[in-house]
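F.,

This is the one I mentioned.
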């Protein structure tokens, strides 16, 4: 890991242990600051602030570095939307009496299905193994503001593009299109908005999470140049990148899903290590429930990042150990590998 000893950073902080488990919160804050200073190399002139949330067993801890950030603020998740949608997809399939092996043509409109789409399963959509493009080929031809690039991309346009796309079942290709196509699955259970509220937001009391949140409630974000940027409106691509949430809700979510993931996490044996190394060489990933499964410090870690025009989110956690880290940046440039670095530090400590 490259270090940045010459980087001089002035940063203010606020650290709040939300539960009594972190009796040494001050030490934890200092360790996070050292990681930020010497390993993460965050440029606070471009990314004004970074908020770090740590989950350790039943304890939660949140600290703010750089420009003070509101711990109750709401942020754009970008592609971190996908693990949420993967979880919701399982709930939708269960409601319909289907499994992940069902064909995409079971929920896509008949006019959009062809032989190749019939061979694509929901599991392949969730794991990016449907051979779909990241974005529709012609999306760049749509006139849109540079600061809100997907706002004009409607469901009608998505449907027209899906009709033209020829998926390749079983071929890895990270895709926003695959998750966007799940819009029609959620239409069969009342729509993604109401279904999310019924199955996730209300039961877990996630008051800062939602699809349609007024711009005025979303924390100010900054672009790659450090300038203030407005929120995105992802329209038809919302199931891939349009969810908004806050730090406490994100920590609550990964705590909630961890037991289920822990029971399905494969053993990190020689065979799996070989598979992960092979995938890494091909620049592909093993995906479970929308999360990338990676090896870090001889441990299997669930990981995902998301970027919008003004925000960057990074989540890394170890379900079986009940440890996780969420990093929210109010700058699109983000925090590099800060979530993994802090998780490595937390994983080496004893659960409080």
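My design for it:
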């Amino acid at each position: 890991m490259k270090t940045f000893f010459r980087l001089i950073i002035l940063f203010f902080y606020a650290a709040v242990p939300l539960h009594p488990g972190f009796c040494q919160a001050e030490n934890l804050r200092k360790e996070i600051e050292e990681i930020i200073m010497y390993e993460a190399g965050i440029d606070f002139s471009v990314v004004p602030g970074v908020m770090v949330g740590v989950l350790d067993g039943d304890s939660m801890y949140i600290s703010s570095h750089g420009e003070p950030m509101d711990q109750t603020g709401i942020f754009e998740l970008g592609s971190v939307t996908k693990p949420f949608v993967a979880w919701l997809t399982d709930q939708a399939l269960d409601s319909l009496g289907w499994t992940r092996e069902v064909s995409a043509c079971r929920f896509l409109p008949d006019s959009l299905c062809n032989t190749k789409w019939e061979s694509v399963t929901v599991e392949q959509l969730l794991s990016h193994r449907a051979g779909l493009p990241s974005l529709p080929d012609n999306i760049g031809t749509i006139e849109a503001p540079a600061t809100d690039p997907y706002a004009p991309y409607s469901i009608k346009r998505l449907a027209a593009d899906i009709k033209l796309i020829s998926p390749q079942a079983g071929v890895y290709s990270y895709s926003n299109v695959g998750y966007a196509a799940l819009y029609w699955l959620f239409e069969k259970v009342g729509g993604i908005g109401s279904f999310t509220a019924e199955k996730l937001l209300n039961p877990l009391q996630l008051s800062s999470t939602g699809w349609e949140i007024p711009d005025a409630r979303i924390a100010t974000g900054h672009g790659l140049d450090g300038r203030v940027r407005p929120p995105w409106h992802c329209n038809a691509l919302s199931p891939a990148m349009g969810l908004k949430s806050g730090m406490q809700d994100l920590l609550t979510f990964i705590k909630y899903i961890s037991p289920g993931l822990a029971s399905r996490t494969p053993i990190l044996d020689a065979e799996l290590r070989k598979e992960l190394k092979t995938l890494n060489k091909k620049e592909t990933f093993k995906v479970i429930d929308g999360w990338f499964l990676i090896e870090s410090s001889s441990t299997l870690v669930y990981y995902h990042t998301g970027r919008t025009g003004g925000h960057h989110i990074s989540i890394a956690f170890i379900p079986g150990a009940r440890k996780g880290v969420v990093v929210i940046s109010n700058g699109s440039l983000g925090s590099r590998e800060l979530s993994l670095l802090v998780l490595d530090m937390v994983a080496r400590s004893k659960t409080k």
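Residues 1-23 have pLDDT under 50 and may be disordered.

Talk soon.
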